[in-house]
Amino acid sequence: MNAKELIARRVALELHDGDIVNLGIGLPTQVVNYLPTDIHITLQSENGFLGLAPVTEAHPNLVNAGGLPCGILPGGAAFDSAFSFALIRGGHVDVSVLGGLQVDQQANLANWMVPGKMVPGMGGAMDLVTGARRVIIAMEHCAKDGSSKILKHCSLPLTAKNKVSLVVTELAVFSFEQGKLVLKEHAPDVALETILAKTGAEFLVSPDFRAMPVALEEGAV
Question: What's in the keyword line of the UniProt record (predicted)?
């Protein structure tokens, strides 16, 4: 099992039957592949869908927020961008799962740009992090150069402040509890010493610190 699959499997266990969920571009889209069979969620896309589904037949006017072909479930709905962001800003999205460039111990998120590199824009990230009831960041623990992505303070431009609920990496699961970063779980065969060495933030270790469970079955939306 590679790092991204492990992360996606663990995040899948955080979703509950009936949740309205927005999955960010990239790694988060894999989460639906590992939902337990008794969990059915409704996917929301900021470009104007409720009830997003896998592609059954490509349609030129049906794409997700990343511009990729998608399907829509029976009973799903399509609407304009204004209504879509009214749903997000109105707090009607239960969970937003996003990738991250950096998260810090104040629950701040940076995930939209690296200074000096061309980016298409922030997209819906700021609204999703601010408006969703729960924000889960699914990302690899370290950057390509080996530096930690979980820091005392984000050095990249922020997407939102104090909004992250949970961070899931291939090494560990952290939650934010009463303003503190708390280490809840370790990945299989990953020692606490490894997490300490690869984490730039200060954190508490939960009294219930345990091995990370992962979804074992592939499900469907």
Answer: Transferase
